[in-house]
Structure formats: structure tokens, C-alpha cells
Amino acid sequence: MKNFRNYEDVHLTFRKGLVIFLGENAQGKTNLLESIFVLAMTRSHRTSQEQELIGWNQESAYIKGELQKKHANLPLEILLTKKGRKTKVNHIEQKKLSSYIGQMNVILFAPEDLSLVKGSPQLRRRFLDMEIGQINPIYLYDLVQYQKILKQRNHYLKQLAEKKQTDELYLDILTEQLVEFGSKIFIARKHFVERLQHWANQLHSQISQGKEQLQLEYVASIPLVDQMDLGAIQQQFTEILAKNREKERFRQMTTVGPHRDDLFFLINGKNVQTFGSQGQQRTTALSVRLAEIDLIYEETGEYPILLLDDVMSELDDSRQLHLLKTIEGKVQTFLTTTTLEHLKHKMTLEPEIYYVQQGFIKGEKTE
């Protein structure tokens, strides 16, 4: 890393298993995790302002990593400037986001992820988009197109309502495009949630010692037909938009589509968002995040990298044990913590420990 957050120039080489960044709060532990996340996803999980990632009084930030895959090593690079970002895979610049994302799969679990269950629908849609995008580059393309058309359509609805435009034909064209990309997003999300539930329910059942069954329910803003046929969903979406046209003109916005979807979590048939205890909500969030490990492995043939940002202190002993048992010897894991007390007796493998203090890392291996 060069000039990333509070790090000027850092070279680190990690071992395969558990890597711990240990230090007091506000020393730069999360910045290290964030750099790995940015290298994988091209953007931060903490801010939408890329300038915040660039070191104080610097013009750019640079992250380079070498990923050890099954068949070969893969160098990845990202340069962040005040004008934008440049990404490279194997030293070749990538113009499309969908060509870069998915090369390195990461799963991040931070205290704010507990709000995945009880937070807003927008958080859950973002979760779906980021996770599906990692394993399905076409989904990212469809999503970008959908969001662009949605913005144009909403703007045109406003112009029609204000009598600045009268051409209904252009609205028809935008609607047709919205249906084309939106229907693909519906199908990809539904398919992903069904597969995620398979793994999440198994994990949740183990953590709750067989007392609870976890169900994930994708709540689309249109009724999805069972056979998930693209043509049938496009027809359904088109009919609902036609029925809602007057309402949309009055409200000056598109009232149905993937931008209005949600994801429900049910334990033994009851909605966890509404009726679940805090413990159940945390177990659900943990089960869903850990379920992604197996789902990504099934999809890509490689395990993702797991980033755990100060979550151990948020979980009780049994959940901590389960988390460590799930990842041990299987997934390269980066964990930030202020103390090792709650971990010492739970780990069977020796972790690699880096001590972080005011942006300096002790115990690092220099290339």
C-alpha cells in the first residue's frame, strides 16, 4: 500500500490461515482490512467518498496484491486518484468494472453487518448486489444498466407530470428497457437467495443446536412466477408497470422494480426483523455471512478471503467458537481485535499476529 489512509508505504506477506491485526482503537487496524476489501471490490465498505482513502496531502493512493490461486498467482492493482480509479489484472488495465470484480472474492463481517437483519431494505439490496456481483459479472452489467434507465425514467415521469414533455412513446421505450434488465435482476436475486438459504440454514441449525430453522425469503416488488422463466417475468413486470402508470405519473417515480425489493429472514416461520431476539438476529447475520463461504466455493472452486472487523467482541462464546470452527484450516481470515483474551482458548491453530500502533505495523514481513 502507498498513501492509503494512514499508511505511507507498507509491504506485507501473509500466511494461509488466520491473520490477526491487534491494537487499540483508532490505530489503523480497520484501514488494513479496508485496503484488502478495496483491492477486491474497487470501493470501500466505509465511505462512498474515494478521496477519503487517499493519505493526507497526497494526490493518489495505490494498492497492489498478489493472489495465490489454484493454478497460478494473480497480481491485482488499483490506483485511486482525485479524478477516479484505475484497475489492473495481471498488469493489464481493465476498463469495465465487471472485468475486475470477481477476480478476488472477499466476505466482510463487521459490527454494522448485524444491521443486515434489522436495518433498512436498502442495506439488504446492497448486500445482494455486492455478493451476487462477485460471482456473476453479468449481474453487475445488468444492474448498472437498470440503475441508469431507472434514473432516466424517473426524470421523464417528472417532466411529464410538470407538462414539460408530452411524448408517451419515449416513456414506453424506457419502460421496455427497464423491464429487460430488471427481469434479469429478479431472476439472479431469487436464484442466489435460494442457494444461500441452503447453506445458511445448515449453519444456523448447528449454532442453535437444532432448535431453529432459518428461512430466507426474497421479497420482490412483483409476484414472481414459480418457473422463473424470463419471458413470463418480463410479461408480469410489463403488466404491473402499465397498471401503475397513472400512479407513477402522479408520484413522479417508478413504483415497482428491483430497487424496491427486500429480503426477509424467518426463524421457525417467524420474521426475525420483527419478532427475533437480539441473539437470534446476530446468529442470523452470522449464518448468512458464513454461508457465503461455501456458496462462493461451490461457484468458483476457490474459497473467498474472510475479513472480520472487530466482531468477536460482539458475539458470545458459542458464536465465537462456531465462527472459528467454520473457518479454521479452510479460509484465509483477517481479523481485527483489541485483545486476544477471548480468542486464546478457542483456537487450535497458531495465528499470525501483527501489532498495529498509530499506522505502524510490528511483526510485519518486509519484501
Automatic annotation (TrEMBL):
Residues 2-358 form the RecF/RecN/SMC N-terminal domain. ATP binds at residues 23-30. GO terms for cellular component: cytoplasm. The keyword Ribosomal protein does not apply. It is found in: Cytoplasm. One of its GO terms (molecular function) is ATP binding. InterPro entries: DNA-binding_RecF, DNA-binding_RecF_CS, P-loop_NTPase, RecF/RecN/SMC_N, RecF_2. One of its GO terms (biological process) is double-strand break repair. Keywords: ATP-binding, Cytoplasm, DNA damage, DNA repair, DNA replication, DNA-binding, Nucleotide-binding, SOS response. It holds the Pfam family SMC_N. The RecF protein is involved in DNA metabolism; it is required for DNA replication and normal SOS inducibility. RecF binds preferentially to single-stranded, linear DNA. It also seems to bind ATP. Belongs to the RecF family. This is DNA replication and repair protein RecF. It comes from Enterococcus aquimarinus. The gene is recF.
